[in-house]
Amino acid sequence: MTDKAAIEAGLRRFGDEGRSASEAARWVIGELGDDFSVFQLMFRFFSVFHVQVQVLRELESWEGLGTGGPLTDAELDAIVGPLTVRETPLS
User: Which residue among 41, 73, 81, 91 has the highest number of C-beta atoms inside a 10 angstrom radius?
Assistant: First the structure.
């Protein structure tokens, strides 16, 4: 089982450091390990960052998932845009 608070704190650091969505997503995948699912990835991003749900749905087509999706890292980063951390995280 993974620690929700630790993952969300790590994601906030990615946003604060100006790192890309693809970097942050790869980190979450590694942290979640066997607990990984696309839904968990989208939920964590939505909880920490100002990003619309329809934008997060693009994660399902990202090549970083290893499912043959056509969306490259650069394309994902452009679609998601800068990772802007929510002032008040969602509960």
Answer: 41
What type of residue is 27? W
* Segment 12-71, tens digit of pLDDT: 999 999 999 999 999 999 999 998 999 999 999 999 999 999 999 999 999 999 999 999
How many other CB atoms are there within 10 angstroms of residue 46's CB atom?
16
**Distance of alpha carbon 23 from alpha carbon 75, whole angstroms:** 13
Dig out the tokens for 25 from the structure: 């997503």
Contact between residue 49 and residue 84 where contact means Cβ atoms under 8 Å apart: yes
